[in-house]
């Protein structure tokens, strides 16, 4: 096993393996102990939280080719599913405000929190909307325009499920996630769940971050050098990166009879940085070409690959 400081790494493995069991059996306690929010910083001021979710929403629309001002035309009547929203359902609120018929959020960890800060972030989001969107956003809550009353589940529903799966069939016209797929324990199960939940002519968009999330020890991407069994022992239930690279996504997209409308990396490591760790890579990564292994993240837009069944012809 690759290490430049075996004593420190042995201690790291022991501590991480113990916390992994806490995350496995008591995800709520794990979230409490580690102070996770989803976005990484609970102390962000509401204006910054709101700005983050506006940016997320705008990037989804941009990637989907929806011009600014035409969001309502695109979203009207569409049911939306969001995997892994984190502690603030900001994207869900904006999707609903811009015309989505309903938004279902699903997570594996119970991160959603109605702190004063987060409630203020919802108000900030509402305040920057035009009159029509603002009216819809206000109706997303149990009491009109009152975030502290909670979301009306007919507009925006939130579920925490085992493995973060929704378990529905052809139920959503738009499926979104950002900074989630790299965290799911079982990517194959989540991709199966997503493909089956997507309606026949639906569209899915995911932003995937392939960076190490602070788990490198000595060199960029050296978190890919832990042998898989050791890495799983430390991380399999925590929502830490699952380490799948883009080759795995290609395989799962094909297996689920989906197709890429778009697949584009968001940045790459220098080839020399990959070559430096290549001799120590864990088995599953050794055959991935440097060009692909260097991806730091990507956007993918997906749809069903199979054409609509032709209408039956009656004699
Ligand atoms: C880095 S946060 C991103 C949160 C949010 N999408 C954002 O952009 O701020 C990762 C999210 O994925 C969720 N998550 C982890 N494992 C999951 C799973 N198996 N299914 C669904 N969500 C999961 C986490 O609980 C968290 O909400």
From TrEMBL:
Gene3D superfamilies: Vaccinia Virus protein VP39. It comes from Luteimonas granuli. It comes from the Bacteria. This is Class I SAM-dependent methyltransferase. One of its GO terms (molecular function) is methyltransferase activity. GO terms for biological process: methylation. Signal peptide: none annotated. Keywords: Methyltransferase, Transferase.
């Amino acid at each position: 096993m690759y290490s430049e400081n075996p004593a420190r790494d042995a201690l790291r493995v022991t501590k991480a393996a113990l916390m992994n069991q806490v995350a496995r059996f008591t995800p709520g306690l794990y979230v409490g102990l580690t102070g996770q929010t989803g976005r990484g910083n609970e102390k962000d001021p509401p204006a910054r939280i709101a700005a983050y979710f506006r940016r997320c929403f705008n990037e989804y629309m941009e990637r989907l080719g929806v011009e600014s001002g035409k969001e309502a035309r695109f979203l009207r009547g569409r049911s939306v599913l969001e995997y892994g929203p984190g502690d603030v359902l900001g994207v869900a609120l904006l999707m609903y405000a811009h015309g989505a018929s309903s938004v279902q959020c699903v997570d594996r960890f119970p991160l959603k929190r109605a702190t004063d800060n987060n409630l203020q972030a919802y108000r900030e989001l509402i305040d920057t909307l035009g009159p029509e969107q603002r009216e819809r956003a206000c109706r997303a809550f149990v009491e009109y325009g009152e975030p502290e009353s909670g979301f009306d589940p007919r507009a925006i529903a939130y579920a925490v499920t085992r493995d973060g799966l929704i378990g529905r069939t052809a139920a959503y016209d738009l499926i979104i996630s950002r900074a989630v797929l790299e965290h799911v324990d079982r990517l194959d199960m989540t991709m199966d769940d997503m493909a089956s939940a997507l309606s026949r002519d639906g569209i899915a968009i995911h932003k995937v971050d392939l960076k190490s999330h602070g788990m490198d020890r000595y060199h960029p991407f050296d978190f890919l050098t832990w042998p898989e069994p050791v890495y799983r022992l430390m991380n399999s239930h925590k929502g830490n990166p699952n380490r799948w690279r883009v080759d795995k996504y290609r395989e799962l997209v094909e297996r689920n009879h989906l197709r890429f409308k778009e697949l584009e990396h968001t940045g790459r490591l220098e080839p020399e940085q990959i070559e430096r760790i290549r001799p120590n890579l864990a088995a599953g990564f050794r055959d991935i070409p440097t060009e692909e292994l260097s991806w730091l993240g990507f956007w993918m837009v997906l749809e069903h690959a199979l054409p609509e069944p032709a209408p039956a012809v009656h004699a």
